[in-house]
Amino acid sequence: MAVIETFGLSRSFGNIVAVEDLTLEVEQGEVLGFLGPNGAGKTTTIRMLAGIIAPTSGYAVVAGFRTDHEVERLHEVIGLLTEAPGFYNRLSARRNLEFFAGFYPYVDTQTQVDKYLRLMGLWERRHDKVGTFSKGMKQRLALARALLHEPQVLFLDEPTAGLDPEASREVREFIKDLSRQGRTIFLSTHNLAEAEFLCHRVALFRRQMLAVDTPQNLRQRLFHRQVVVQMDSAEDSVVDAVRKLDFVQAVHREGSRLIVELADFERNRPNLVECIVTAGGRIQEVSETEYSLEDVYLTLVREETEGSNATKS
Amino acid sequence: MRRRYIINIIKKEWEDTLSNLNTLLLITLAPLLIIGQGLLVIYLVVRFAGEGVLMSPMFQTAMEKLEAILPSIAELPPIDKLQVLLFSQLHVYLLLIPVMIAITFATFSIIEEKQSRSLEPLLATPVRTDELFIGKALAGSIPALVMTWLCAGLSLIGIACLGTAHILGAVVTPSWFISVFLLVPAVTVLSFLLGAIISSRVNDPRNAQNISLLIILPVLALIAVQVIGVLLLTPLLFFIIAVIVGVVDLIVLRIGVRLFQRESIIIQWR
Protein backbone atom coordinates (compact mmCIF):
# COMPACT_ATOMS: atom_id res chain seq x y z
CA MET A 1 0.00 0.00 0.00
CA ALA A 2 1.43 3.38 -1.01
CA VAL A 3 1.79 5.78 1.91
CA ILE A 4 3.30 8.59 -0.12
CA GLU A 5 1.93 9.29 -3.58
CA THR A 6 2.66 12.26 -5.78
CA PHE A 7 0.87 13.08 -9.00
CA GLY A 8 2.67 15.45 -11.36
CA LEU A 9 3.92 17.46 -8.39
CA SER A 10 5.56 20.70 -9.53
CA ARG A 11 6.78 23.85 -7.89
CA SER A 12 8.13 27.05 -9.37
CA PHE A 13 9.53 30.16 -7.73
CA GLY A 14 8.94 32.94 -10.21
CA ASN A 15 10.54 31.77 -13.43
CA ILE A 16 12.61 29.11 -11.73
CA VAL A 17 11.24 25.59 -11.81
CA ALA A 18 12.41 23.81 -8.65
CA VAL A 19 10.44 20.57 -9.03
CA GLU A 20 8.85 19.41 -12.24
CA ASP A 21 6.19 16.80 -12.72
CA LEU A 22 7.20 14.46 -9.91
CA THR A 23 5.18 11.27 -9.86
CA LEU A 24 6.22 8.78 -7.23
CA GLU A 25 4.94 6.14 -4.84
CA VAL A 26 6.48 5.05 -1.56
CA GLU A 27 5.16 1.91 0.05
CA GLN A 28 4.31 1.36 3.70
CA GLY A 29 7.49 0.55 5.63
CA GLU A 30 9.77 1.48 2.77
CA VAL A 31 12.86 3.68 3.07
CA LEU A 32 13.17 5.76 -0.08
CA GLY A 33 16.40 7.62 -0.66
CA PHE A 34 15.89 10.90 -2.48
CA LEU A 35 19.21 11.69 -4.07
CA GLY A 36 20.31 14.71 -5.99
CA PRO A 37 22.95 17.43 -6.12
CA ASN A 38 22.64 20.67 -4.17
CA GLY A 39 19.82 22.77 -5.55
CA ALA A 40 18.15 19.78 -7.17
CA GLY A 41 14.82 20.49 -5.45
CA LYS A 42 15.04 17.88 -2.67
CA THR A 43 14.17 20.24 0.17
CA THR A 44 11.38 21.84 -1.88
CA THR A 45 9.95 18.38 -2.49
CA ILE A 46 10.09 17.51 1.20
CA ARG A 47 8.44 20.81 2.09
CA MET A 48 5.63 20.09 -0.34
CA LEU A 49 5.19 16.56 0.98
CA ALA A 50 5.22 17.85 4.56
CA GLY A 51 2.52 20.41 3.75
CA ILE A 52 4.72 23.41 4.45
CA ILE A 53 4.58 24.85 0.95
CA ALA A 54 1.98 24.21 -1.72
CA PRO A 55 2.71 22.83 -5.17
CA THR A 56 2.26 25.05 -8.20
CA SER A 57 0.58 22.14 -9.94
CA GLY A 58 -0.09 18.49 -9.23
CA TYR A 59 -0.69 17.17 -5.75
CA ALA A 60 0.51 14.69 -3.18
CA VAL A 61 -1.22 12.36 -0.75
CA VAL A 62 0.67 11.33 2.38
CA ALA A 63 -0.80 8.82 4.83
CA GLY A 64 -4.16 9.39 3.19
CA PHE A 65 -4.13 13.19 3.50
CA ARG A 66 -3.78 15.73 0.71
CA THR A 67 -0.72 17.78 1.55
CA ASP A 68 -2.28 21.00 0.24
CA HIS A 69 -5.77 20.73 1.80
CA GLU A 70 -5.48 18.70 4.98
CA VAL A 71 -2.39 20.18 6.53
CA GLU A 72 -3.28 19.96 10.23
CA ARG A 73 -4.37 16.31 9.94
CA LEU A 74 -1.27 15.55 7.90
CA HIS A 75 0.97 17.08 10.55
CA GLU A 76 -0.44 14.74 13.17
CA VAL A 77 0.89 11.70 11.32
CA ILE A 78 4.19 12.86 9.86
CA GLY A 79 7.53 13.71 11.42
CA LEU A 80 9.95 16.13 9.80
CA LEU A 81 13.65 16.40 10.39
CA THR A 82 14.63 19.68 8.79
CA GLU A 83 18.02 20.34 7.29
CA ALA A 84 18.93 22.63 10.22
CA PRO A 85 17.96 21.24 13.65
CA GLY A 86 16.30 24.53 14.72
CA PHE A 87 15.91 24.76 18.50
CA TYR A 88 15.41 27.41 21.16
CA ASN A 89 18.97 27.62 22.35
CA ARG A 90 18.28 29.19 25.74
CA LEU A 91 15.80 26.47 26.68
CA SER A 92 16.82 23.03 27.90
CA ALA A 93 16.63 19.93 25.72
CA ARG A 94 13.72 18.70 27.77
CA ARG A 95 11.81 21.98 27.57
CA ASN A 96 12.31 22.13 23.82
CA LEU A 97 10.79 18.67 23.41
CA GLU A 98 7.96 19.45 25.82
CA PHE A 99 7.08 22.52 23.80
CA PHE A 100 6.86 20.62 20.53
CA ALA A 101 5.02 17.70 22.17
CA GLY A 102 2.45 20.24 23.37
CA PHE A 103 1.03 20.41 19.85
CA TYR A 104 0.00 16.75 19.88
CA PRO A 105 -2.85 16.50 22.40
CA TYR A 106 -2.97 12.69 22.26
CA VAL A 107 0.71 12.38 23.23
CA ASP A 108 1.69 11.64 26.82
CA THR A 109 4.28 14.40 26.86
CA GLN A 110 6.36 13.32 29.86
CA THR A 111 6.50 9.65 28.82
CA GLN A 112 7.43 10.40 25.23
CA VAL A 113 9.96 13.09 26.07
CA ASP A 114 11.68 10.83 28.62
CA LYS A 115 11.62 7.90 26.20
CA TYR A 116 13.31 9.75 23.38
CA LEU A 117 15.79 11.60 25.56
CA ARG A 118 16.98 8.22 26.83
CA LEU A 119 16.87 6.60 23.39
CA MET A 120 18.95 9.38 21.88
CA GLY A 121 21.51 9.27 24.69
CA LEU A 122 20.64 12.76 25.87
CA TRP A 123 19.15 11.89 29.25
CA GLU A 124 22.15 13.12 31.23
CA ARG A 125 22.07 16.44 29.39
CA ARG A 126 18.30 16.90 29.49
CA HIS A 127 18.44 19.99 31.72
CA ASP A 128 21.22 21.66 29.74
CA LYS A 129 20.52 24.49 27.35
CA VAL A 130 20.43 23.34 23.74
CA GLY A 131 22.79 26.18 22.86
CA THR A 132 25.57 24.23 24.61
CA PHE A 133 25.00 21.08 22.51
CA SER A 134 27.26 19.85 19.72
CA LYS A 135 25.83 19.57 16.22
CA GLY A 136 25.51 15.79 16.60
CA MET A 137 23.57 16.16 19.84
CA LYS A 138 21.27 18.73 18.27
CA GLN A 139 20.66 16.39 15.36
CA ARG A 140 19.75 13.56 17.74
CA LEU A 141 17.47 15.90 19.61
CA ALA A 142 15.88 16.91 16.31
CA LEU A 143 15.27 13.25 15.52
CA ALA A 144 13.68 12.85 18.96
CA ARG A 145 11.44 15.81 18.22
CA ALA A 146 10.39 14.33 14.89
CA LEU A 147 9.43 11.08 16.65
CA LEU A 148 7.67 12.36 19.80
CA HIS A 149 4.21 11.68 18.37
CA GLU A 150 5.21 8.31 16.84
CA PRO A 151 4.54 9.34 13.24
CA GLN A 152 3.83 6.75 10.55
CA VAL A 153 5.81 8.69 7.97
CA LEU A 154 9.14 10.42 8.47
CA PHE A 155 10.74 12.99 6.22
CA LEU A 156 14.44 13.30 6.90
CA ASP A 157 16.26 16.10 5.12
CA GLU A 158 20.01 15.48 5.05
CA PRO A 159 20.04 13.82 8.49
CA THR A 160 23.82 13.41 8.65
CA ALA A 161 24.91 16.59 6.90
CA GLY A 162 27.74 18.27 8.75
CA LEU A 163 28.12 15.53 11.36
CA ASP A 164 31.42 13.88 12.21
CA PRO A 165 31.80 10.21 11.21
CA GLU A 166 30.87 8.86 14.63
CA ALA A 167 27.77 11.02 14.96
CA SER A 168 26.79 10.14 11.38
CA ARG A 169 27.07 6.45 12.16
CA GLU A 170 24.90 6.82 15.25
CA VAL A 171 22.22 8.66 13.31
CA ARG A 172 22.34 6.09 10.48
CA GLU A 173 21.99 3.22 12.91
CA PHE A 174 19.04 4.90 14.49
CA ILE A 175 17.36 5.42 11.13
CA LYS A 176 17.97 1.75 10.39
CA ASP A 177 16.16 0.89 13.64
CA LEU A 178 13.24 3.10 12.63
CA SER A 179 13.07 1.27 9.34
CA ARG A 180 13.00 -2.06 11.18
CA GLN A 181 10.03 -0.75 13.17
CA GLY A 182 8.16 -0.51 9.87
CA ARG A 183 8.03 3.25 9.53
CA THR A 184 7.92 4.78 6.09
CA ILE A 185 10.93 7.02 5.62
CA PHE A 186 11.57 9.57 2.89
CA LEU A 187 15.27 10.31 3.17
CA SER A 188 16.82 13.19 1.29
CA THR A 189 20.58 12.92 1.07
CA HIS A 190 23.55 13.30 -1.20
CA ASN A 191 25.52 10.80 0.82
CA LEU A 192 25.39 7.83 -1.52
CA ALA A 193 26.91 5.32 0.89
CA GLU A 194 24.26 6.31 3.39
CA ALA A 195 21.52 5.82 0.81
CA GLU A 196 22.89 2.40 -0.12
CA PHE A 197 23.06 1.40 3.55
CA LEU A 198 19.61 2.62 4.53
CA CYS A 199 17.31 2.60 1.53
CA HIS A 200 15.19 -0.05 -0.09
CA ARG A 201 14.92 2.08 -3.20
CA VAL A 202 16.56 5.29 -4.34
CA ALA A 203 15.11 8.06 -6.45
CA LEU A 204 17.65 10.07 -8.40
CA PHE A 205 16.35 13.55 -8.77
CA ARG A 206 17.42 16.76 -10.35
CA ARG A 207 14.44 19.06 -10.74
CA GLN A 208 12.68 16.06 -12.20
CA MET A 209 12.88 12.34 -11.58
CA LEU A 210 15.82 10.72 -13.36
CA ALA A 211 15.32 7.18 -12.12
CA VAL A 212 13.83 5.29 -9.23
CA ASP A 213 14.60 1.70 -8.34
CA THR A 214 16.67 -0.43 -6.01
CA PRO A 215 20.39 0.37 -6.15
CA GLN A 216 21.04 -3.09 -7.61
CA ASN A 217 18.49 -2.70 -10.39
CA LEU A 218 19.80 0.74 -11.26
CA ARG A 219 23.31 -0.67 -11.65
CA GLN A 220 22.08 -3.42 -13.90
CA ARG A 221 20.02 -1.03 -15.91
CA LEU A 222 22.92 1.34 -16.54
CA PHE A 223 25.98 -0.85 -16.72
CA HIS A 224 26.72 -4.16 -18.48
CA ARG A 225 28.03 -6.78 -16.14
CA GLN A 226 31.69 -7.44 -16.76
CA VAL A 227 33.94 -10.32 -15.77
CA VAL A 228 37.34 -9.28 -14.45
CA VAL A 229 39.97 -12.00 -14.90
CA GLN A 230 43.23 -11.42 -13.06
CA MET A 231 46.05 -13.50 -14.60
CA ASP A 232 49.80 -13.86 -14.16
CA SER A 233 50.05 -12.12 -17.51
CA ALA A 234 47.51 -11.42 -20.24
CA GLU A 235 49.22 -12.89 -23.34
CA ASP A 236 48.09 -11.93 -26.86
CA SER A 237 47.20 -15.55 -27.60
CA VAL A 238 44.78 -15.62 -24.68
CA VAL A 239 43.20 -12.30 -25.65
CA ASP A 240 42.77 -13.50 -29.24
CA ALA A 241 41.15 -16.74 -28.05
CA VAL A 242 38.70 -14.81 -25.89
CA ARG A 243 37.84 -12.40 -28.73
CA LYS A 244 36.91 -15.34 -30.95
CA LEU A 245 34.21 -16.54 -28.55
CA ASP A 246 30.77 -15.73 -30.01
CA PHE A 247 29.22 -14.75 -26.65
CA VAL A 248 31.95 -12.19 -25.94
CA GLN A 249 30.75 -8.63 -26.63
CA ALA A 250 33.85 -6.66 -25.67
CA VAL A 251 37.33 -7.29 -24.28
CA HIS A 252 39.65 -4.79 -22.60
CA ARG A 253 43.19 -5.56 -21.42
CA GLU A 254 44.56 -3.62 -18.45
CA GLY A 255 48.03 -4.96 -17.67
CA SER A 256 47.59 -8.53 -16.55
CA ARG A 257 43.81 -8.15 -16.24
CA LEU A 258 41.14 -8.89 -18.80
CA ILE A 259 37.78 -7.16 -18.53
CA VAL A 260 35.18 -8.97 -20.59
CA GLU A 261 31.54 -8.18 -21.35
CA LEU A 262 29.42 -11.24 -21.97
CA ALA A 263 26.06 -12.05 -23.43
CA ASP A 264 24.05 -14.21 -20.98
CA PHE A 265 26.43 -13.46 -18.18
CA GLU A 266 25.66 -16.27 -15.73
CA ARG A 267 25.70 -19.07 -18.32
CA ASN A 268 28.82 -18.00 -20.22
CA ARG A 269 31.13 -16.99 -17.39
CA PRO A 270 32.33 -20.60 -16.83
CA ASN A 271 32.82 -20.97 -20.61
CA LEU A 272 35.03 -17.89 -20.61
CA VAL A 273 37.16 -19.27 -17.77
CA GLU A 274 37.48 -22.60 -19.58
CA CYS A 275 38.59 -20.85 -22.78
CA ILE A 276 41.28 -18.84 -20.97
CA VAL A 277 42.66 -21.91 -19.24
CA THR A 278 42.63 -23.84 -22.53
CA ALA A 279 44.52 -20.99 -24.23
CA GLY A 280 47.24 -21.26 -21.56
CA GLY A 281 46.26 -18.39 -19.33
CA ARG A 282 47.12 -18.74 -15.60
CA ILE A 283 44.16 -17.33 -13.66
CA GLN A 284 44.69 -15.77 -10.23
CA GLU A 285 41.17 -14.51 -9.62
CA VAL A 286 37.81 -14.12 -11.34
CA SER A 287 35.49 -11.36 -10.20
CA GLU A 288 32.85 -8.96 -11.43
CA THR A 289 33.20 -5.24 -11.98
CA GLU A 290 31.68 -3.43 -9.03
CA TYR A 291 29.66 -0.32 -9.76
CA SER A 292 28.83 1.86 -6.84
CA LEU A 293 25.69 3.89 -6.41
CA GLU A 294 27.98 6.84 -7.01
CA ASP A 295 28.69 5.53 -10.51
CA VAL A 296 24.98 5.21 -11.13
CA TYR A 297 24.33 8.67 -9.77
CA LEU A 298 27.10 10.37 -11.71
CA THR A 299 26.14 8.63 -14.93
CA LEU A 300 22.50 9.63 -14.63
CA VAL A 301 23.28 13.20 -13.66
CA ARG A 302 25.78 13.47 -16.54
CA GLU A 303 23.24 12.08 -19.00
CA GLU A 304 20.63 14.51 -17.75
CA THR A 305 23.04 17.45 -18.06
CA GLU A 306 24.01 16.43 -21.60
CA GLY A 307 20.34 15.98 -22.46
CA SER A 308 19.35 19.41 -21.22
CA ASN A 309 22.36 21.03 -22.93
CA ALA A 310 21.42 19.36 -26.21
CA THR A 311 17.85 20.61 -25.82
CA LYS A 312 19.06 24.18 -25.19
CA SER A 313 21.40 24.20 -28.21
CA MET B 1 -8.41 28.63 17.69
CA ARG B 2 -7.14 26.02 20.12
CA ARG B 3 -6.46 27.61 23.48
CA ARG B 4 -4.12 24.81 24.53
CA TYR B 5 -1.78 25.55 21.62
CA ILE B 6 -1.89 29.29 22.21
CA ILE B 7 -1.02 28.84 25.89
CA ASN B 8 1.81 26.49 24.90
CA ILE B 9 3.24 29.20 22.64
CA ILE B 10 2.83 31.95 25.23
CA LYS B 11 4.62 29.90 27.91
CA LYS B 12 7.51 29.12 25.58
CA GLU B 13 7.81 32.73 24.43
CA TRP B 14 8.00 33.97 27.99
CA GLU B 15 10.54 31.37 29.06
CA ASP B 16 12.69 31.94 26.01
CA THR B 17 12.55 35.73 25.92
CA LEU B 18 12.87 36.24 29.65
CA SER B 19 15.82 33.86 29.92
CA ASN B 20 17.76 36.58 28.12
CA LEU B 21 18.99 38.86 30.92
CA ASN B 22 19.13 41.98 28.75
CA THR B 23 15.56 41.51 27.63
CA LEU B 24 14.42 40.76 31.15
CA LEU B 25 15.97 43.97 32.44
CA LEU B 26 14.54 45.94 29.53
CA ILE B 27 11.05 44.69 30.25
CA THR B 28 11.13 45.06 34.04
CA LEU B 29 13.49 47.90 34.88
CA ALA B 30 13.11 50.22 31.90
CA PRO B 31 9.39 50.91 32.51
CA LEU B 32 10.13 51.72 36.14
CA LEU B 33 12.91 54.05 35.04
CA ILE B 34 10.62 55.72 32.49
CA ILE B 35 7.94 56.48 35.03
CA GLY B 36 10.44 57.30 37.77
CA GLN B 37 12.21 59.73 35.47
CA GLY B 38 8.91 61.35 34.48
CA LEU B 39 7.92 61.87 38.11
CA LEU B 40 11.36 63.14 39.02
CA VAL B 41 11.48 65.69 36.18
CA ILE B 42 8.05 67.04 37.13
CA TYR B 43 9.02 67.19 40.78
CA LEU B 44 12.23 69.09 39.96
CA VAL B 45 10.44 71.56 37.65
CA VAL B 46 7.81 72.30 40.28
CA ARG B 47 10.33 72.41 43.14
CA PHE B 48 12.97 74.60 41.51
CA ALA B 49 11.34 76.46 38.62
CA GLY B 50 7.98 76.75 40.31
CA GLU B 51 5.47 79.37 39.23
CA GLY B 52 8.11 81.09 37.14
CA VAL B 53 7.47 78.49 34.44
CA LEU B 54 3.96 79.81 34.07
CA MET B 55 5.32 83.19 33.00
CA SER B 56 6.33 81.63 29.71
CA PRO B 57 3.71 82.36 26.97
CA MET B 58 3.92 78.70 25.91
CA PHE B 59 2.83 77.47 29.33
CA GLN B 60 0.24 80.20 29.64
CA THR B 61 -1.41 78.99 26.44
CA ALA B 62 -1.26 75.39 27.69
CA MET B 63 -2.77 76.42 31.00
CA GLU B 64 -5.64 78.27 29.31
CA LYS B 65 -6.46 75.17 27.32
CA LEU B 66 -6.25 72.99 30.40
CA GLU B 67 -8.64 75.25 32.29
CA ALA B 68 -11.04 75.05 29.36
CA ILE B 69 -11.04 71.28 29.67
CA LEU B 70 -10.93 71.17 33.47
CA PRO B 71 -12.84 74.26 34.77
CA SER B 72 -12.53 72.87 38.31
CA ILE B 73 -8.84 73.80 38.44
CA ALA B 74 -9.46 77.51 37.85
CA GLU B 75 -9.62 78.10 41.58
CA LEU B 76 -6.37 76.30 42.37
CA PRO B 77 -3.17 78.21 43.17
CA PRO B 78 -0.80 78.62 40.16
CA ILE B 79 1.71 76.07 41.51
CA ASP B 80 -1.05 73.45 41.74
CA LYS B 81 -2.21 74.26 38.23
CA LEU B 82 1.34 73.71 37.00
CA GLN B 83 1.42 70.34 38.74
CA VAL B 84 -1.88 69.33 37.17
CA LEU B 85 -0.60 70.36 33.74
CA LEU B 86 2.62 68.38 34.08
CA PHE B 87 1.27 65.33 35.89
CA SER B 88 -1.50 65.10 33.27
CA GLN B 89 1.16 64.31 30.68
CA LEU B 90 2.25 61.17 32.52
CA HIS B 91 -0.46 58.94 31.09
CA VAL B 92 0.64 59.90 27.59
CA TYR B 93 4.24 59.34 28.64
CA LEU B 94 3.17 55.86 29.77
CA LEU B 95 2.55 54.96 26.11
CA LEU B 96 6.30 54.60 25.68
CA ILE B 97 6.21 51.47 27.87
CA PRO B 98 3.92 49.22 25.80
CA VAL B 99 5.66 50.38 22.64
CA MET B 100 9.05 49.39 24.02
CA ILE B 101 8.01 46.04 25.53
CA ALA B 102 5.81 44.85 22.67
CA ILE B 103 8.47 45.72 20.09
CA THR B 104 11.15 43.96 22.14
CA PHE B 105 9.06 40.79 22.34
CA ALA B 106 8.12 40.89 18.67
CA THR B 107 11.63 41.42 17.39
CA PHE B 108 13.34 38.91 19.68
CA SER B 109 10.67 36.32 19.21
CA ILE B 110 10.57 36.41 15.44
CA ILE B 111 14.17 37.16 14.58
CA GLU B 112 15.50 34.55 16.98
CA GLU B 113 13.17 31.99 15.43
CA LYS B 114 14.55 32.98 12.04
CA GLN B 115 18.15 32.86 13.20
CA SER B 116 17.82 29.52 14.98
CA ARG B 117 15.68 28.17 12.10
CA SER B 118 13.15 26.79 14.56
CA LEU B 119 10.14 27.99 12.58
CA GLU B 120 10.21 25.23 9.98
CA PRO B 121 9.96 22.35 12.47
CA LEU B 122 7.28 24.33 14.27
CA LEU B 123 5.36 24.72 11.03
CA ALA B 124 5.45 20.94 10.60
CA THR B 125 3.40 20.46 13.78
CA PRO B 126 -0.41 20.64 13.82
CA VAL B 127 -0.36 24.24 15.07
CA ARG B 128 -1.96 26.67 12.64
CA THR B 129 -0.18 29.87 11.66
CA ASP B 130 -2.99 32.05 13.06
CA GLU B 131 -2.63 30.27 16.43
CA LEU B 132 1.10 30.78 16.29
CA PHE B 133 0.70 34.46 15.48
CA ILE B 134 -1.94 35.08 18.15
CA GLY B 135 0.19 33.19 20.69
CA LYS B 136 3.19 35.35 19.93
CA ALA B 137 1.11 38.54 19.92
CA LEU B 138 -0.39 37.72 23.32
CA ALA B 139 3.00 36.73 24.70
CA GLY B 140 4.29 40.17 23.77
CA SER B 141 1.18 42.18 24.60
CA ILE B 142 0.31 40.78 28.03
CA PRO B 143 3.59 41.78 29.74
CA ALA B 144 3.43 45.13 27.94
CA LEU B 145 -0.05 45.80 29.30
CA VAL B 146 0.70 44.49 32.78
CA MET B 147 3.85 46.57 33.10
CA THR B 148 2.11 49.68 31.74
CA TRP B 149 -0.81 49.33 34.10
CA LEU B 150 1.58 48.65 36.96
CA CYS B 151 3.45 51.82 36.08
CA ALA B 152 0.17 53.72 35.75
CA GLY B 153 -0.61 52.66 39.32
CA LEU B 154 2.88 53.65 40.45
CA SER B 155 2.54 57.00 38.72
CA LEU B 156 -0.65 57.69 40.69
CA ILE B 157 1.15 56.77 43.91
CA GLY B 158 3.97 59.09 42.86
CA ILE B 159 1.55 61.94 42.12
CA ALA B 160 -0.15 61.42 45.47
CA CYS B 161 3.22 61.53 47.22
CA LEU B 162 4.87 64.36 45.27
CA GLY B 163 1.92 66.54 44.43
CA THR B 164 0.05 68.91 46.67
CA ALA B 165 -3.37 67.97 48.02
CA HIS B 166 -6.24 67.40 45.54
CA ILE B 167 -3.87 67.12 42.57
CA LEU B 168 -4.60 63.43 42.13
CA GLY B 169 -8.31 64.08 41.62
CA ALA B 170 -7.53 66.63 38.91
CA VAL B 171 -5.15 64.27 37.08
CA VAL B 172 -7.28 61.12 37.07
CA THR B 173 -9.79 62.29 34.50
CA PRO B 174 -11.82 60.52 31.80
CA SER B 175 -8.83 61.22 29.52
CA TRP B 176 -6.61 59.27 31.91
CA PHE B 177 -8.98 56.26 31.85
CA ILE B 178 -9.40 56.34 28.08
CA SER B 179 -5.67 56.64 27.59
CA VAL B 180 -4.72 53.86 30.01
CA PHE B 181 -7.48 51.38 29.21
CA LEU B 182 -8.18 52.02 25.51
CA LEU B 183 -5.22 53.77 23.94
CA VAL B 184 -2.54 51.72 25.72
CA PRO B 185 -3.97 48.34 24.53
CA ALA B 186 -4.42 49.70 21.00
CA VAL B 187 -0.86 51.04 20.92
CA THR B 188 0.45 47.77 22.40
CA VAL B 189 -1.13 45.71 19.63
CA LEU B 190 0.07 48.14 16.97
CA SER B 191 3.62 48.06 18.35
CA PHE B 192 3.69 44.26 18.37
CA LEU B 193 2.29 44.01 14.87
CA LEU B 194 4.72 46.54 13.43
CA GLY B 195 7.58 44.88 15.28
CA ALA B 196 6.53 41.50 13.86
CA ILE B 197 6.16 42.77 10.31
CA ILE B 198 9.51 44.55 10.37
CA SER B 199 11.16 41.52 11.97
CA SER B 200 9.97 39.32 9.15
CA ARG B 201 12.03 41.48 6.78
CA VAL B 202 15.30 41.95 8.66
CA ASN B 203 17.66 39.55 10.39
CA ASP B 204 19.07 41.63 13.22
CA PRO B 205 16.94 42.35 16.30
CA ARG B 206 18.68 45.71 16.77
CA ASN B 207 17.82 46.82 13.24
CA ALA B 208 14.24 45.71 13.73
CA GLN B 209 14.02 47.57 17.03
CA ASN B 210 15.57 50.70 15.56
CA ILE B 211 13.05 50.75 12.75
CA SER B 212 10.14 49.77 14.99
CA LEU B 213 10.93 52.43 17.57
CA LEU B 214 9.96 55.06 15.01
CA ILE B 215 6.50 54.43 16.43
CA ILE B 216 7.67 56.27 19.54
CA LEU B 217 7.91 59.52 17.58
CA PRO B 218 4.14 60.13 17.40
CA VAL B 219 3.91 59.45 21.16
CA LEU B 220 6.66 61.97 21.89
CA ALA B 221 5.00 64.43 19.53
CA LEU B 222 1.74 64.00 21.43
CA ILE B 223 3.48 64.83 24.73
CA ALA B 224 5.27 67.81 23.19
CA VAL B 225 2.19 69.41 21.65
CA GLN B 226 0.34 69.08 24.97
CA VAL B 227 3.12 70.53 27.12
CA ILE B 228 3.76 73.50 24.86
CA GLY B 229 0.06 74.16 24.56
CA VAL B 230 -0.31 73.64 20.81
CA LEU B 231 -3.06 71.15 21.48
CA LEU B 232 -4.54 69.78 24.66
CA LEU B 233 -6.46 66.60 24.13
CA THR B 234 -9.97 66.35 25.42
CA PRO B 235 -11.43 62.97 26.46
CA LEU B 236 -13.24 62.88 23.12
CA LEU B 237 -10.00 63.43 21.21
CA PHE B 238 -8.31 60.69 23.24
CA PHE B 239 -11.21 58.40 22.41
CA ILE B 240 -11.00 59.25 18.71
CA ILE B 241 -7.24 58.62 18.69
CA ALA B 242 -7.80 55.26 20.41
CA VAL B 243 -10.41 54.32 17.81
CA ILE B 244 -8.12 55.38 14.95
CA VAL B 245 -5.23 53.34 16.38
CA GLY B 246 -7.67 50.41 16.79
CA VAL B 247 -8.64 50.66 13.11
CA VAL B 248 -4.98 50.84 12.12
CA ASP B 249 -4.46 47.73 14.30
CA LEU B 250 -7.02 45.84 12.22
CA ILE B 251 -5.41 46.90 8.94
CA VAL B 252 -1.91 46.02 10.15
CA LEU B 253 -3.24 42.74 11.60
CA ARG B 254 -4.45 41.74 8.15
CA ILE B 255 -1.00 42.44 6.73
CA GLY B 256 0.61 40.54 9.61
CA VAL B 257 -1.62 37.49 9.21
CA ARG B 258 -0.90 37.44 5.48
CA LEU B 259 2.82 37.53 6.19
CA PHE B 260 2.41 34.82 8.79
CA GLN B 261 1.43 32.06 6.36
CA ARG B 262 3.53 28.90 6.24
CA GLU B 263 4.60 29.55 2.68
CA SER B 264 5.48 33.22 3.27
CA ILE B 265 7.53 32.36 6.34
CA ILE B 266 9.54 29.74 4.48
CA ILE B 267 9.96 31.49 1.16
CA GLN B 268 9.66 35.24 1.67
CA TRP B 269 11.15 35.78 5.11
CA ARG B 270 14.84 36.53 4.95
Distance between the termini of chain B: 28 Å
- Low confidence ranges of chain B: none
Tell me the number of strands of chain A. Answer: 14
Strand content of chain B: under 5%
In total, the number of strands of chain B is 0
Proportion of residues in extended strands of chain A:
25-35%
List the defining traits of the structure above.
heterodimer; A: 313 residues; 6-stranded mixed β-sheet; 11 helices; 14 strands; 39% helix; B: 270 residues; 14 helices; 0% strand
Question: Can you walk through the features of this model?
Answer:
The complex is a heterodimer of chains A (313) and B (270). Chain A contains eleven helices and 14 strands. Chain A has helices at residues 42-49, 71-77, 93-101, 109-119, 135-147, 165-180, 192-198, 215-222, 236-243, 265-278, 293-312, and strands at residues 2-13, 16-27, 31-35, 57-62, 65-66, 78-81, 153-157, 184-189, 201-206, 208-213, 226-231, 248-254, 257-262, 283-288. In chain A, the strands form three sheets. A six-stranded mixed beta sheet of chain A has the order 6-7-8-3-9-10, with helices on both faces. In chain A, strands 2-1-4-5 form a four-stranded antiparallel beta sheet, covered by helices on one side. In chain A, helix 3 (93-101) crosses helix 4 and helix 8 (215-222) crosses helix 11 (293-312). Chain A starts with a strand and ends with a helix. The mean pLDDT of chain A is 89. Chain B has helices at 3-18, 21-49, 57-69, 78-87, 90-93, 96-116, 119-123, 129-162, 167-171, 174-199, 205-212, 216-227, 235-259, 262-268. Chain B has one domain. By secondary structure, chain B is mostly helical. The relative contact order of chain B is 0.15. Chain A binds chain B through residues 13, 47, 50-54, 71-73, 75-76, 78-80, 82, 84-91, 95, 99-100, 102-105, 142, 145-146, and chain B through 4-5, 8, 11-12, 15-16, 19-20, 112, 116-128, 262-263, 266-267.
